[in-house]
Amino acid sequence: MQMIVTDVRPIRIVECEGFKSLLNYLEPGYILPSRKQFTADINRKHAMGKERLKFLLEKEAPCVVLTTDIWTSLATEAYMTVTAHYINQKWILQEFVLETF
Length: 101
What we know:
The chain is α+β, with helices and mostly antiparallel strands.
């Protein structure tokens, strides 16, 4: 799941033969969860992260700065990311990606 989220990969990758072959090579006998299970897990993780971020911003961030970054992937797909930044009470910069689309 972490690879799908971090690398912005489609969830359908878990159904691809090459991916299944790689996992079987790395961990023979491993039973890969279904696409439906990955979707549920990602949605659950997103909801938990959203609540955590909301709590942190309410507790630590009287001011928030938003930035955007636009780029093109190797497959020439355009992306934009919105990131929130703030300095916490210990003067440590905090950054959270809000969305990539």
